[in-house]
Amino acid sequence: MDSEGVPTGLDWPADDLGRVPYQVFTDAALYQREQERIFRGPLWHYVGLEAEVPRQGDYKTTHIGEVPVILSRGKAGQLHVLVNRCAHRGSIVLREGSGNSCRFQCVYHRWEYEPDGTLAVVPFQNGLGGAGGYDACFSKAEHGLKRLRVETFNGLVFATFSEQTPPLPEYLGPIVGPRMARVFDGRELVVLGQLRHTVKANWKHYLENVFDAYHAGLLHGFASTFNIFNPAQRAESISDRHGVGMAMTWVPEGAEPPRVEAATPPRGQALQAPELVHALPERDEEIRALLLIVSPTFIGQRMGNCLSTRQVIPRGVDSFEQVWTLFGYADDSPELRESRLIHGNMTGPAGYVHLEDFDALENTHKGIQGARGESAFLQLGGTSCEAGKPQPTMADEGQVRLFWHVWREWMGV
Ligand code: FES
Ligand SMILES: [Fe+2]
User: Fold this and answer.
1) What is the pLDDT of residue 259?
2) Does the beta carbon of 51 lie inside 6 Å of ligand 1?
3) Which domains occur in the chain, in start order?
4) Exposed (0-12), middle (13-18) or buried (19+): which is 106, by Cβ within 10 Å?
5) Which ligand number lies closest to the CA of residue 87?
6) Deepest in the core among 49, 50, 127, 266, taking most CB within 10 A?
């Protein structure tokens, strides 16, 4: 370990993105550095949808990196993100879950907080029978829950620990922001369900997976068979240079939209429930599948009529938690709402499309154990990466290289 906390064994030339040392997925010291520089650093992190806490006093618990946090709605209707750590002796204040409460009470010694984190009640503040209690200078105002900066983007809630993080619109920038607005367009969102599961792999295997569009046509047999995605499809994949990345697949303006119902599955294969892949028209009809990424904690997805967010929560160097929130728009027709739920079967840990991802990630993480001094080969489409330009083809690992370029900037390695 050097004086900056960088593991001295990390042998990775500064200009080499065509190989990625497997050590970055397994090194406990690098994991701790990620917590400090990325998850508690100057980045915006996704914590949930506004629609998950619609009323005053609503709350949900989640994490940013390893730090437990609460997303809550205060008395005046404003959103708060608070560290879920009692200001007394550090207990979790709200256990895992969601609910509504006018006060958040820590069960240990019953300190109570307002939904904005202000400390409201301290048992025995003035002692008992005239003896004990806190010093006269004790002020509840100085002992609230730690508040994070919070900003929203059309129903998505982001938080950051840092005062240095640029305002969210500037952070998302001209590439990511307008594309995010194709799904998060200001319409009221409604939550349709949530899935959460733990994957026994380092969280960065998953970021690689979402920036790597071409695996989808090879790994996901269901998606390629029924023409949800194939690498030759007209598509765009583009990232900006600040690590706020995105990969998306769509049909560019003026092009003929692919029609899923016209797909010709191999002889003898047909779905008994074609509604599983038959998408009803949306406003923006040319998009078949769309992935939006605000690295490293947010992925937004439209697949057919299924809309979801995916939140990435690291749980140690060998594990991460994935939270899927399926949603629709408040003005959806009943038919469209039904189709969103049906298409939800393609997604999530047991979905017809995503089932394979988590198996592949766990298999990769198992495969690299003990690989001292070895590296992944990441040279499909070259060894460089270019921000702000669409990738020339889906069969290219340029977006993954860009992720690593930005990760190295965040980490200072
Ligand atoms: S640790 Fe929360 S009240 Fe004591
Ligand atoms: Fe995948």
Assistant:
1) 44
2) no
3) 45-151 (2.102.10.10), 178-411 (3.90.380.10)
4) buried
5) 1
6) 49
